[in-house]
């Protein structure tokens, strides 16, 4: 759900801030009276950042003519790769949204949908990370190539000490910096979504059905400890004091009452055909008319 909501938004922000960029640089050349002073030169560049094709005309103060100057560097590969990944991620996230909402049953059928989604999510997370790193490096090189100091060195008149050159306007880089940040945010977002997609696959469900040996051993050890603790609790321990013994005696007294109740019920259910018994007085028996022991004698009357 997180990817469905935020992935299209961050993908649009990433490729839109990079693909729609236009930079403007303005420099001024002063020929010290040989030509009209304060000549402003406008230099425009933008996506896909093929700077070697960007050119402008600069005055040659000594020859009183103009020269054509080209910037240096081609950074189109990294920029186009970054924008392509953003567009594809945006389209796939829209497609995934439609499938999640309207075709949930077909998505879960035969586990093909979650498996394909899992592999595609891994691919996009890796490509986002790779493209963001390449674009961040290229952005640093673009800033260096369009630095006013580097651009002024390309003009022959500015290499002379008697002429004065300066930059009156520099390009703004906040938009391109934002695009690089959105690239890494997308990489983090898609990498975090791998776990949620993996939980929908059959690989995760199979692991839940058949736990590993370590987990089963852990459960068996916990069960043994639980049984050992219960058995040790049943045995009286003098170290716990009189309160422990009183609780044990009370529990035993309840158990004896239950046994007596069950015995009385069973005795009431016995057939009356059995011989009746009663207790007589205590009789003392002895070998050769000598007292040996004492105890109750049971007399049986036959019915």
TrEMBL record:
It is a multi-pass membrane protein. Residues 208-245 are annotated as: Disordered. Residues 1-202 form the MARVEL domain. InterPro entries: Marvel (IPR008253), Synaptophysin/porin (IPR001285). Residues 1-16 form the signal peptide. Residues 219-228 have a biased composition (Basic and acidic residues). PROSITE patterns: MARVEL. This is MARVEL domain-containing protein.
């Amino acid at each position: 759900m997180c990817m469905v909501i935020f992935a299209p938004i961050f993908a649009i922000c990433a490729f839109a801030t990079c693909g729609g960029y236009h930079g403007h640089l303005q420099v001024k050349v002063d020929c010290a009276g040989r030509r009209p002073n304060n000549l402003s030169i406008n230099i425009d560049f933008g996506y896909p950042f093929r700077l070697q094709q960007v050119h402008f005309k600069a005055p040659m103060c000594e020859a009183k003519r103009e020269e054509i100057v080209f910037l240096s560097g081609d950074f189109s590969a990294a920029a186009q790769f970054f924008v392509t990944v953003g567009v594809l991620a945006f389209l796939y996230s829209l497609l995934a949204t439609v499938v999640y909402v309207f075709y949930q049953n077909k998505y879960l059928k035969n586990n093909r949908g979650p498996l394909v989604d899992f592999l595609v999510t891994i691919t996009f997370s890796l490509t986002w990370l790779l493209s963001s790193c390449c674009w961040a490096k290229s952005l640093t090189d673009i800033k260096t190539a369009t630095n006013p100091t580097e651009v002024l060195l390309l003009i022959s008149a500015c290499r002379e000490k008697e002429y004065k050159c300066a930059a009156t306007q520099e390009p703004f880089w906040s938009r391109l910096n934002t695009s690089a940040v959105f690239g890494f945010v997308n990489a983090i977002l898609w990498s975090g979504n791998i776990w949620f997609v993996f939980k929908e696959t059959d690989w995760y469900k199979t692991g839940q059905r058949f736990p590993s040996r370590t987990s089963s051993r852990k459960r068996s050890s916990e069960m043994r400890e639980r049984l050992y603790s219960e058995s040790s609790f049943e045995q009286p321990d003098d170290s716990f004091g009189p309160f422990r013994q009183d609780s044990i005696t009370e529990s035993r007294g309840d158990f004896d009452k239950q046994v007596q109740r069950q015995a009385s019920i069973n005795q009431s259910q016995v057939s009356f055909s059995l011989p009746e018994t009663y207790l007589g007085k205590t009789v003392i028996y002895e070998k050769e008319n000598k007292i040996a022991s004492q105890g109750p004698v049971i007399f049986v009357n036959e019915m």
